[in-house]
Amino acid sequence: MLKKELHKYLFLLAVLILSTLLAFAFEQFELRRENILLIYVASIMLIIVETRKVVFGIISTFLLVFIFNFFFTEPKYTIIIDDANYIVTIIIFMVAISILGTLTTSLRREIISSQDNARKIDLLYQISKELLYASTVDEIYEIEIKHLKMNLGRNLLLTLPKQKLTYGDYEIDIDSYSREINY
């Protein structure tokens, strides 16, 4: 667990460094500062998607705003902002990143939910397919117990009291049925 968290922080640091280097390249080509902000937006989105946590997006947003202010606004190499336009830009930047981070996280949850639903549908399809070929009550019990055991990851014991099953014109007497199935 600690290794995964460390990996996320190292990823965050690597993306911050690479995006800042790319921002310096943009500045050398005398491209507008808005392009540098777009690099940072893409970097933050990458961080949120990779780490799967909005917290890392918020951390990276604050760090990148500080980096942008320090390296790319006048006066350079200070944390002072002389131009009111940069303050407005930075505020809009932070709001946009917060919204994008929230949307990305929500989308990620929806994808996971969709994958879970697809897995459940596939499982129901497999059970239904096997039940089509079951010809005895014992086979039905075995199929159901097998699938329950596979999905619950536990050994199961099925115990049924003596009962009569009616299927159309047929009546079936079932004696007490107890069986442990291990697959």
Walk me through what this model shows.
By secondary structure, this protein is mainly alpha-helical. The protein has a domain at about 1-110. About 70% of the residues lie in helices and about 10% in strands. The chain contains 5 helices and 4 strands. A two-stranded antiparallel ribbon has the order 1-4. Strands 2-3 form a two-stranded antiparallel ribbon. About 15% of the residues are buried.
Q: What percent of residues are in strands?
A: 5-15%
Amino- and carboxy-terminal Cα gap = 32 Å
Tell me the Rg in angstroms: 30 Å
Order of helices and strands: HHHHHEEEE
Q: What general form does the structure show?
A: rod-shaped
Q: How many β strands by DSSP?
A: 4
Helix and strand layout, with pairings?
Blueprint: H1 2-28, H2 33-51, H3 54-72, H4 84-132, H5 137-152, E1 156-160, E2 163-167, E3 170-174, E4 177-181
Helix pairs in contact: 1-2, 1-3, 2-3, 2-4, 3-4, 4-5
Write a concise keyword list for the protein shown above.
mainly alpha, 4 strands, two-stranded antiparallel ribbon, two-stranded antiparallel sheet, single chain, 183 residues
Brief synopsis:
With 183 residues, the chain is mostly helical. The chain has helices at residues 2-28, 33-51, 54-72, 84-132, 137-152, and strands at 156-160, 163-167, 170-174, 177-181.
